[in-house]
Amino acid sequence: MQDKQILVVEDEEDILELVSFNLKKEGYKVKGVTSGEEALQEVRREVPNLIILDLMLPGVNGFDVCKSLRNDYRTKTIPVIMLTAKSEEADIVIGLELGADDYLTKPFSPRELIARVRAILRRSEARVSEHEALLKVHDIEINVKRHEVLISGKSINLTSTEFRILILLADRPGWVFTRDQIVGAVHEQEYAVTDRSVDVMIVGLRRKLGTSGQFIETVRGVGYRLKG
User: Fold this and answer.
1) What dotted CATH number matches 135-226?
2) Is the pTM of this model over 0.85?
3) d(Cα 222, Cα 66) in Å, to the nearest integer?
4) Are 31 and 56 in contact (CB under 8 A)?
5) In 3D, which of 25, 70, 83, 20 has the Cα closest to residue 43?
């Protein structure tokens, strides 16, 4: 348990301290931030094992944070527990539809929170193991953690952006991804990615994949898919 990192996103300092204290008491490593912007920045620096996310945040709210996490292959499997003062069914449904794994409404029992955390971390282990395993589509083998791509056993060099695109496509062979979805998956703060640049990057990726590049299919008027 001691190696599990939890990010707590809560703008009310007393609740942030309460949640952090109880998690640390259980042996978890805890990082606390008070805004959605800080949460996304922190996740880029270090991917946590679980996020406890308040929905009603200033600026970038919890809904937007959750949506951003699920649109990025690096963070889409991070378990998220929503915290909210709103108990209306609509808010809960929206959060769950955006990809949250569970929710608690304020006020809540710290013991209940810890129980939810334990349960979700147990359930997520299988998903995490699957995501970190070697992806293999046709003769393309991808090791996510090692940032390594093999074609018929031979290593090829991809840029970080090309690697992200390949992971996105290979994670769900046969699925069609729009250019907007690809933009969201490869976006970095340092530069802008456009629809046109996605097309250019796909051309470069196909070239580096050699004969295996033919498996990346263009779906006219929509986007791209990796043939399953």
Assistant:
1) 1.10.10.10
2) no
3) 25
4) no
5) 70
